[in-house]
Give the backbone structure.
Amino acid sequence: MGLRGPGAKPKKLRTGKAVGARATPNPVHTITRKRGKARFDELVYFIESLPITSGILAGKNFELRDWQKEILIRIYGTKGRRKVRQAVVSTPRKNGKTQLAAALALAHLCGPMAEARGQVYSAASDRDQAALIFNEMVAIIQAVPELDDRVIIRNYNRHLEDTETGSIFRAISADVGTKHGFNASFVVFDELAQSPNRKLYDVLLTSMGGRKEPLFVTISTQSPDPHSIMSELVDYGLQVRDGVIHDPTFHATIYTAPDDSDPWDEATWFACNPALDDFRSLEEMRTAGLQAQRIPARESVFRLLYLNQRVEADARFIALADWQACGADIDPESLRGRPCWAGLDLSSTQDLTALVLYFPEDGGAVLPFFWVPKDRMKEREDTDRVPYRTWFNEGLIEAPGGRAIDKVSVIRRLAELASTYDIQGIAYDRWRLEDLKKLLTDEGIDVPLTGWGQGFKDMGPAVDLLETAILNRQLTHGNHPVLTWNLSNAVIEMDAAGARKISKSRSREKVDGLVGLVMAMGLHSREPKPRMVEFSGSLVISA
């Protein structure tokens, strides 16, 4: 391996076949210089000389499908200077967009589309997403000796440099600081639909004015937001396609299921997933489709990510019937001293506060506790349109005096519960963890507190756990009316990878108890599993 850090130098050129290359002499190095073919044919030849490094086709060379070639010929298949300057390719997930994007970036960095001292960028909404194309490019480069000898890899800042053309590649994200000073020759924006705003897109697009043949390719599923930059591009592309607007510099290929199509018909799936039952798994899509028919929140997710329809992922989290099926009565006395895990959603001032105990060894029993400020119950009833005072009278919520949540009363109650039940851990919002720790210290209360992220990383797996437990009837919540109300309000938010969390900002009303339950179950799932040790023979104890 050559140097791969600051000041890295290219390795001495070596001979030999590339991993995954055909039996004929490897064409990757020569194709970057060969101009005997039409430019589109050069591009196809180059891409099909590259190895696939992951997925079900790993170990083989790229073999562009007809639908992929159709996309490329629309962009690159012109005589003379390329006319297309912007291209949008929108498909459902798992149709090979990352691999194609990586191959195109390599073609512009060190392949037939490269130019002297070009600047190639892959862009995404966050660092993890931005790394996907870079990692794919690195895997390909390291599998092809000719490329590995000429391209310097700097992993620490996701930077590539081609020593023959002087071109560079960088992976950048919307969550970094300054993004000016670019002179881009080629940009591929991955999952633009997930970008928090259009700033990075606009900076990169306007950086291409100093290039002879710049190209900006957006590869993404659709956005559920009709006002997003991705929706703007899709709408413009459809107008260009339909001849409403004449713009030969703009091309769009959009695979999407019509709004009036049957989302559960496999013919619909095949119509909008060009790689289905090829390198996109039909079995996995069937599984996802069956789940989406049963789980309300997954229908919109399925239609957005699997059918590429512009739909809001805001359906109810769980059907009320499935929730009520887990509503068997719970005897709190029988749970005394039993191990449990807790999730605490402590409101800052006036809102609902929730603490939920989860007993996985007792049929998944759930004990929720709620608090509201006593002096604001009537006001909260008018705002939230639920019977807070009735719930208080029935002992379903607690209401310390005052107009704001009395946090000291809450943590003192928490201490009482910790002396009654064997609380193994309490998950709490990590960004407010130090404030809660100080309150506990001031009151002399010692409980096992764990910081819990409120983003997709921590909440995503925990939401899946709750959903699975409900559907498999592995949860018992006693039909607590406040917790059931929280469930009925829940709206799911989803990231580009399909991870989900309960969105407080988009949910119709309060969801604090459900968030507490999700955190409690997620915390329990992180407990180390007991190890099973098998042995044979006699156990001898000597005095």
User: Anything to note?
Assistant: The two ends are 59 Å apart (CA to CA). The chain has three domains: 28-254, 266-305, 320-525.
